[in-house]
Amino acid sequence: MPLTFSDIDNKAINTIRLLAVDAVAAANSGHPGAPLGLAPAAHVIFKNMKFNPKNPDWINRDRFVLSNGHACALLYSVLHVMGYESVGIEDLKQFRQLNSKTPGHPEFELPGVEVTTGPLGQGVCNAVGLAIAQANFAATYNKPGFEISDNYTYAMLGDGCLQEGVSSEASSLAGHLQLGNLIAIYDDNKITIDGATNVSFTEDVAKRYEAYGWEVIVVKNGDSDLAAIDAAIEQAKKTTNKPTLIQLETTIGYGSLNQGTSGVHGSPLKADDIAQIKEKFGFNPKENFAVPQEVYDFYNKEVIVPGAKANSEWDALFSKYQSEFSTEGAEVARRLTGELPAGWEKLLPTYTPADSAVASRKLSEIALDSIFDKIPELIGGSADLTPSNLTKSKGSTDFQPEATGLGDYKGRYIRYGVREHGMGAIMNGIAAFGANFKPYGGTFLNFVSYAAGAVRLSALSGHPVIWVATHDSIGLGEDGPTHQPIETLAHFRALPNINVWRPADGNEVAAAYKIALESKHTPSIIALSRQNLPQLEGSTVEKAAKGGYVLSENKDAKITIVSTGSEVGIVVDAVKNLASAGIPARVVSLPDFNTFDKQSKEYKLEVFPDGAPVLSVEVLSTFGWNKYAHESFGINRFGASGKGPEVYKYFGFTPEGIAQKAKTVVDFYEGREVKSMLNKAL
Predict the structure, then answer these.
(1) pLDDT of residue 1
(2) Can you tell me which residues bind substrate (predicted)?
(3) Looking only at Cα atoms, what is the longest distance across the chain?
(4) Most CB atoms within 10 A, among 55, 121, 143, 277?
């Protein structure tokens, strides 16, 4: 039903505009241009949205994503006037200040902020993920007369978002998936930091999105035609078989003396400009952060009260749903608590040394198969490498529009296509939806680097997404150095708040999945081999779940060799060679640095005690190993094309080669006092 608008709407819009201007001015830092231009659109969008500021996590709320995150003064101002207690006037005054709730780009922890944005284009993809999650949740649990999930995702984005390649990846997939629950609002202000968009961005965005399979609606006057913006949203909601892009022509910095120029994009307005714009909008130029009571009252009547009513009606509907559909109701209720199904971890496979050697990518497939049916919130996919990543569970259905005949929205396997970066950012959106969604996505480890921006935001936001990263070393062989990761693990291990697993056998693979799925706020990368690996004597799921453990103890050891993944089995054989030469050695398997680092100091010193040097062995960059090891044997150059075993031999990663390195280390440290690398002041 179309909204009606009056003078109070314009006063409310101008209040939002000036709150943003004052916040940027108080910080003497920020972006006033987009908030001034987009306040009318934000006002109309939020009047259309279904949400409850008093219950910001309500699962059936409409989602709003600010992909052009630099415009966050707009979002914070909107959240304040819309009744979010998390953003008071004092919080607006503390915009961009240390430890404030209103940082320079939106962060996921603040109620009302659905996803962390800032790097342009990421929010577009997050919105696609939110829409996928909603479509799956609705298809899985809605019943006739009981639509417990019917929300929309709104994404606001700018020219910069559309120039980033990742937005193309996600938008293309969204069109293919016919996500009618996704509405994107494009701020077409024709300005970039460098000047007008005609210096670098002259494509026809409307035709581009039509080619993706989107509905495109153009609003010529986004500065003041509220009815046209509302009509576009109404039309978008009626288009159920494709996402919609509303191309909104706006004036950046609307009302400023510098409106329509790049100068108003990323610098506070000058004092005289602020004074004149306040007068122009009917406000006292001497008052800052002014919100007329009638604006608060207006939003209370138009947004807050209806939102609370919608939430209450949903609660009643869900209560009836639980009575009518006890199994599904209990499952939804469990998912909303963020807990996994009881006993799921008992389904993970375990192994003994008598079991055959298997590639860890295959062990991953076996683990996923064992738990997939038990965990309905597990939703996977691959960037066009399903037969190589082995990420599709037996019997699983593809997430596809039913009209394609390829699957349905109940399906929990997503064909991402060759879109690694898009996949990563979409997974962040799926995780951000709530309902305990646990997204995983497969590609080669080396190509997780394509998605580094999304991985970083997973860690920063605390989205527990899982990367199934196969072909994790020179062991992949013939594809050569373009596909062989060297620096990749060092890079991702350097990120805060991410578990980077490189399991050595089946028990360690099971441990990786156990920790990854139990993690509520930490993403995981599970690096897996193409080649077969033996099941190791001394490994257990419980030990591996600590991130590192002593695989083979020797009280008389003259050296500890620590390793990960496919090299651990080779190290075990190297230690046998050392024993034949009269050199006792210990073996430590360290599948995940981050999990190990969280263990007690006492435990870590049991694994890496004083008294003997530690040699790390890994067929990747040695960068970062000095945290644990006195010496490192790795590869600090690019790999080589050839058969996997031959490439390993070429670089010296054989039992004999490793034993020789160990002898050199033992000889060097003979007679010296050796302290654990973990024994440090800081």
Answers:
(1) 78
(2) 31, 265, 361, 388, 471, 479, 483, 530
(3) 90
(4) 121
